[in-house]
Fold:
Amino acid sequence: MTIALSIQDVHVTLGHNEVLKGVSLDAVPGEFVTLLGASGSGKTTLLNVIAGLQRVGRGHVLFDGANVERRPPRKRKVGVVFQSYALFPRMSVGENVAFPLRAARRPGAERRRIAQEMLELVDLAGMAGRTPDSLSGGQRQRVALARALASDPGILLLDEPMAALDKQLRERMQVEIKRIQQQVGITTVAVTHDQAEAMTMSDRVAIMQHGRLIQVDSPENLYRRPVNEYVASFLGEANLFPADHRGPLPAGAGGPASGTAVIRPEDLVILDAAHPADRWSIRGVVRLLSFQGSRFRLELATPEGQVVVCSLPPHAEVGALVPGSEATLGCAAPHRVHVIRASDAEPLLGVAA
Structure:
């Protein structure tokens, strides 16, 4: 079973603080949606609203078209994986996975069968007799995921489930969770502040700011076509320049800017005689050059005081790019420059403030 989720104009006030300010969001059955935003943006509160752990002041929460905001958490058919995993230390792994089935008074043989199936799903077959403290962080996370799926929920909620893992394990688990979610086909809503995590796992990402949804789109569209400067800067590194409808304005251009050009670091190149400047280029002084394995990260300081970030391939010739030297950058792929028109950005920025 998987459920279509609809959040309609939801408002939540805690004390004197309006935490959610008219949030609306739909997820089709089987979709993976991640709520992404800075601390205090309202993403965890929205997750708690879906789970039934937070009452709604105004608005509606619908599962398959049925209003559920007055339905208690235990009757919502929602599975939750918490940041702490919340495993019972004195229970075995199998007992932890079967716990929601025991709470539902399912027969013992059925509980053991389903627990075994869930452990096989998360690649932990044969570990039912182990205790949680004998497992690694990644294994404990998979036990928590198996437990959340054991009762066959219609929606899976993930509350920063990888925050406690180191970078390498976190990256592996992102792929693993996505694999399991696709195999089960369950509607999933996750909360994270990790941009790479959201981009890796999600069908769509919902950017939140100050209790509002700013943009909901596929990871690629968010990265390539942000609706405003906040989204552009929040999702990966972005260079922002004054622009007209054609793209970034040349330095010293006379006409007023009608928007902001977004240029990602990987779309900039070092210009030389072999790559002359086209319509637009920018000159500055090298501030920093660092090797990061898959790329060189170059920071260039312009005379106006802006720091421009350029990403160069790991095989690039960078011997001349010493701090204090001058360099000129140009856009390698003008068609990938995204212009946020002032007329488009201003209403959104006003709403999000």
The longest helix spans residues 167-184. The mean pLDDT is 90.
